[in-house]
Amino acid sequence: DAGVIQSPRHEVTEMGQEVTLRCKPISGHNSLFWYRQTMMRGLELLIYFNNNVPIDDSGMPEDRFSAKMPNASFSTLKIQPSEPRDSAVYFCASSLSGGGGYTFGSGTRLTVV
Amino acid sequence: GENVEQHPSTLSVQEGDSAVIKCTYSDSASNYFPWYKQELGKRPQLIIDIRSNVGEKKDQRIAVTLNKTAKHFSLHITETQPEDSAVYFCAAQGASGYNKLIFGAGTRLAVHP
Question: Collapsing DSSP states into helix, strand and coil, what is residue B72?
Answer without folding.
Answer: strand
